[in-house]
Amino acid sequence: MITIFEKSKGGVSAIEILKLDVPDTGRIPKELERDFLELPEVSEIEVIRHYIQLSRRNFGVDLGFYPLGSCTMKYSPKINEEIANFEGFSGLHPYVPLSFSQGSLKLMYGLSSFLKEISGMDAVSLQPAAGAHGELTGIMIMKVYFEKKQEKRTKIMIPDSAHGTNPATVTMCGFTCMQVKSSSKGSLDIDDLKAKIDSDTVGLMLTNPNTLGIFDENILEIIKIVHDNGSLVYCDGANLNANMGIVRVGDLGFDMIHFNLHKTFSTPHGCGGPGSGPLGVKEYLAEFLPNPTIIEEKNGGRESYKLDYSKNSIGKVKAFYGNFTVLVKAYAYIMGLGAEGIKNAAENAVLNANYMMSKLKKHYNLPYDRICQHEFVIDDSRMENNVTTNDIAKRLLDYGFHAPTVYFPLIVKGAMMIEPTETESKETLDRFCDVMIKIKEESKTDQDKVKNAPWKMPVKRVDAVKAARELDVVFNK
Amino acid sequence: MTNYIPNSDKDKKLMMDAIGIKNTDELFTDIPKEKILTNPLNLPRGVSEIELRQNMKDICKKNIIPKLSFLGAGCYNHFIPSTVNSVISRSEFLTAYTPYQPEISQGSLQIMYEFQSMIASLSGMDAANASMYDGASALAEAASVTCLSKGKNTILISKSVHPEYRDVVRTYMKARDVNVIEIEIKDGVTDKDDLKNRVNEDVAAVIVQSPNFFGIIEDQEKISDIAHKNNALMVSCVTESISLGILKSPGSLGADIFIGEGQSFGLTPSFGGPHLGLFAVKKELVRKMPGRIVGKTSDADGKDAYVLTLQAREQHIRREKACSNICTNQGLCAIAASVYLSTVGKKLKDLAYQNMQKAHYAFDTLLQVDGCEKVFENPFFNEFVLKVKNSREIKSKLEEKNIIIGLLLEDFYPELKDCILFCVTELTRKEDIDDLAKELSVAIGDSL
Amino acid sequence: MENPKELKYTKEHEWVKVEEDNVVIGVTDFAQHLLTDIVFVELPEMGKEIEQGKPFMVIESVKSVSDVYASVSGKISKVNEDLQDNSGLVNDDPFGRGWLVKVKIKDAKEIDKLMSAEEYEKFCKEEENK
Fold first, then answer.
1. What is the DSSP string of B82-142?
2. Is the ipTM here above 0.90?
C-alpha cells in the first residue's frame, strides 16, 4: 500500500488551527527557526482511510486466535479500556499537587497491594514500563544490595532456556552471564548449577514456569542452593498467568519478580506496547526500589495517599510514576475477576494448554513430554519434505490464526511455542489443532502450498534478507 | 464476578478426559505440595461490569482536573485531533503483539516505517527506531550507546536537562559503572565555560536539552562543536516535541543522537504515562540503535512489504552482547503520534508558532503583575520562569481556587528559590492568561 | 563446493591462505551454509591486533550473530571493503571475493597447527553427524 507521504499534496490539511487570540509578538530569533518541515499534507478523510485500510492489514486477538507462546495473548476486556479513558485518569498531569491526584494514588496503592498478595512479595514498584524494564530494575537492585553489604560479586546465572532479555539485562548492569544447562526433563540441571555457583555469584534469574512451559519440580532445592550461597533469586514473571492464585513465588522463596501487566493482567499489547512491568521484592530489598513509591496514611478512618522517597533507592528508571493508564486497566481487571476469578483464569489457561498438547503430540514431536503449565513446545522434526517451523507458521496465517512463537526457546531446534490462554474456547483450540494436523498432511501431499505460504495475506512471504542487506528505514522521495 | 472463560463445565470435563485427568489439581503436581495455596488470595470479591464501572468512577472522582493549569515540565496539555483515538481504538492495532509475523502485520509495520520517517525528518536525523518507553529512559539508553560506540566511560549532562531525565540517566549509568558529570547552568542555559573545562578525550557524550527544562532554547551548534572537538558525541533531547515544528532540527545543529518525548504528539498526560520515547541517529550509529526498527523490502512477488529489520542487534539474538534489553516499546503510542502528525501535517509549524506566541503574551502579561520578576533573558519556546515572592504560599492559595500556576523550581533546583516554571500551549486561551494574571495579582497582594 | 587444497582450515570453519608474510582469512562454504543469508559483516579496524582462537569480528544473518575467530595471531593489514555494501559475497563466493581480512602474521608456525583440506572435510562430516 502506498505511504502517507505519497498521498500528500500541497494546499490541503486535516485540521484547522485556531485563530491566534493574542497579539502577534514573536520573539524567536529568525536564525533559530527551521526552514523546512517535511510532513504529509492530506485531508481528514485521507488520513482516516489510510490508517483504517492499514488496520485491515493487521491482526489482533479480537480477530482471532493468537497462540504466541510466552506472550499471553488473552482477551483484553473492553470495560477496562473504557475506564482507562475516563478523563479523570487520562487528563491528569503528573505534577499536580497530591490533593488533586488522590484517585490515581489510591489506585496505584491498591494495585501494588494486589500484586503483593498475588506474588507473596512485600513491596512493589509500578514504575517499570515493560517486563525487560522490570528485569533491569531488579538486577540493578541486586547490584546495590551487594554494594551495601560491601561484597564484590559479578556473575549472574541464567538457564539456557531463558528469554534473551535476561542476558542482555545482566550486561546492562555490568555483570557477566553464566549459563546453566537444562536437564533432559526440561527443568534446570541442578548438578550444573551446583558446579557453577560460587562466591562470585550475584544471583540466578529464573523464568518459572520456564519457556518450555514447565514448572521446575526442584524449585525449592534450587532456591536453597542459591540462598545458601548468599545469592539472590530473580523470578522472570512473564509466565505468571499459569500459577496465579495457585502458588506464590514469594512463598517458594524467590527474592523478586516482575509482572507483565500486558500479559498476565490482560492489558492489550498495542502492536508491541505500551506495557507495564512492575517489580515486586521482599522486605529486605524494598529500600532499593525506584523512587517514589506510594504510601497510605490513615487519619481517623480516612485514607490519604502520599509519595514516599527512599534514600537508598537505585533512583528512577522512568520519568514520573509508570505507565499509569496501563495500571488502571490491570487494576480494573483484578477488581473484576477477584480472588476466585484470578485462580480460575490460571487453571483454565493450564487446562487449555494441556488439552492442546495432548491432541498435538500425536502428530508433532513433543521434546518434553510431561504435564505443561500455560504453554508447551513442539518442533518440526516429524515433518516430511523438509517442511520447517517457519513454513508451518506462515501456513497457519492462511487459516486465520496467528502463528505460535517460533524458534524459541533456543534449546529446541525448530521450536513452536504454543500458549492458548484461558480466554479461548474448546472449539477454537479444536479448530487450531485440526489445522495443524491438516498442514502436516499438506506437507506430504502438496508441499509447495506449505513452503510458499502464506497465500491469503496482503503480501506473500516477506524478504527479510533484502530488508537487512538493502537497509531502507526512512521514506525518501 | 466477571468471567472471560468461554468453556462450560461440560467442555472442561471433555478436555480433562482427553488429557486423562480427573480434576485440574492434577495439572499442578510439579508444584511443591506444601506451597500450594489452600486459602483463596486476599483480594476483593470479583464484581460485575456494572459494579466495576461504578467503583472505578468513584475512584476516578477522587482526582481533580484543575480548572486552569500552567503545568508543563515534560508533560503537556495539547489538542488531540479526533482522528487519533478513532485509529488507536481499532482492535487490529490495540490487540496485536509486536509484528513478529510480517505477512499478517503489514498495517502496523507500515505505520512504524512511516513513523520512523517522520521522526527522522523532524529531528534532522538519518534513521529513527519504532519507539522507546519514554524520553527519560530513551536518554539513558542513548548515553549507553555513546559509551559503547566510543569505548569511553564518562558522560557530561547539562543541569538544564529535565531533573527526572538526569535521575534516570544516573540510574542506568551507575549500573554500567559510567561516570555522569553535570554541567552548570548560567542565565538559564548550559554554561559553555564550565562545559569546556570539563570536556576531554575521556568523554563519550555531551547531553543537552533544547528547549531546556526552563523552556529556553540552547545553543546546540556551539555545544556540539565543543563535543566534537573533543571526540565526544552530542546527544540532543527534547521534552516538548511541538517545538520541532518551528525550531531548527537537532540534526542540522550537529547532534549525533536525538532523543525526544513524543507525548505532545497526540497522547494524553495520563498522570505521567504511557508516553512515547523517540530515538533517532545519524547514519554511523544506525546499527548501535536499541529497539525495534522496521525496514522496507519486498515480498516473494516483488511487491512492497515491511518487516522488522536489523534484529541481530537485539537481545533475542545477541543476548548478553546486545546493547539494550528493550523489546516491548510503546507501539500504540507511536501509532497515535503517526496519526497526529499526518493530521496536523505541515501545520505543526503554525501550531508551534501559536504555542510560542501565547507563551510570550503570558510572559508579558504576568510581568505586569506587581511581585512577578523576570529570571532569565534567553529566548524561550512555550515555557518560561518567573520569580514570585512567597511562591509556595501563593501556589497553594490558587490551588484552593482550582488553579495550578505552574511548577515550583526550588523542588528540583534549591538555588532557584521562589521561581515558577509556567507552560502555555495552544489550548490556553487569552482569557485564561488574563485570569491567571488577575488571580496572581490578588494572591500576591494578600500575601504582602 | 570443494574446499580448495591449497588452503588451511580451522575448527571454527575459517580458511587461511598464505601470501608471503600476509595471510588471507575467510569462512568456508560449510560455514556460509550454516550461517544462511549473511546480511552484515562487521569488519575490524585496520591495525587491530588479533590472537589465534579469539573472536575478532562478527557476521550477521537475519536470525543470528556469529563470532569469527582468529585463525592466526597478528595485525589486521587489510579488510574486504566490498563486503560493506555486498555482504552476500560471503555466501556467493566464500573462497574468493567473499574473503574477510588480511593479517600480517606474527608467528608462521601457527599455520602448521591448522587442518588440511582433507582433514577439514573429515571434521565437517563428524560435525554433521553429531
1. HHHHHHHT-HHHHT--S--SGGG-HHHHHHHHHHHHHHHHHHT-SEE-S-BS-HHHHHHHH
2. yes
